[in-house]
Fold this protein.
Amino acid sequence: MERILVIGANGQIGSELVETLSAQHGAENVIAADIGPRSSFGVKRYEPIDVLDANVVSHIIDTYHVTQVYQLAALLSVTGEQAPLKAWDLNMNGLLNILEIARKRGMGGKPLRVFWPSSIAAFGPNTPRDNTPQMTVMDPTTIYGISKLAGERLCEYYFLKFGVDVRSIRYPGIISYKSPPGGGTTDYAIAIFHSALKGETYRCYLGPESGLPMIYMPDAIRATIELMEAPAEKVKVRSSYNVGGISFTPRELAQKIAEQVPGFKIAYEPDARQAIADSWPQSLDDSQATADWGWQAKIGIKELVQDMLANIKLPQPLSKAA
Ligand code: AKB
């Protein structure tokens, strides 16, 4: 029986991961944790913890007899640029704390499987942008991307040196409707749907031809759990796997939305986020993930657009008292 701790459970991926893991393993076997009060629904066990406090995290892992940890707490590309030292501290020391706990537990015969998210942000301007290979030039230019590249090296180091069973995915932009994303460059691909449903013109902070790899949340959750459930000998990459979903530009996405929402309009007003997007891949070669643990994306742009438009719940205006 697995006991699973999800750190960063109030975030975009964490909240949906907790839901799926609870359905699979039973809600009593999933411990959601985040720095603030609980915001995810359907959680049976919640612990308000700071991943930077290694003693507290270790205590929670011991108390619940945790066998798997998903360490998702991080600052993303845009918020990271606003607070680079904080981003470095959280993104690196959060991961290091978990890897160290896993190393020590392994020595005591209590192995801990670890999941940690990397990102397309680990690539940079000299990386081949189309069908970006698994192994290639990586020269990230944001503090977020630098922390992801360093984190990938740490994951591989802890696996090779100490045998820590750590697994990771380089996520593309993740599109979802349940919880809002938190400060990324790819967030336009969610905000655009909200504008379309409100009948507003979407003012896009990226130019029309800024292609980026994206993935719809159900595929992202499936990839994450499939990797964590794969037999250890099949997980040949211990830095992080390229995992692709779909790739599109703001112009292509707006066109697909306009097919469903007649009259929808987009205006382009690129800002500082454009330079970040320009340094990232446009599409990923994820054939290594397919070969090693059978990864296949299932959801294409048409289905994604229909599902987003059908499920986004806009905040209702406050009704006036009679
Ligand atoms: C971001 O835009 O910062 C994230 C990411 C691609 O890791 N969504």
The longest strand covers residues 113-119.
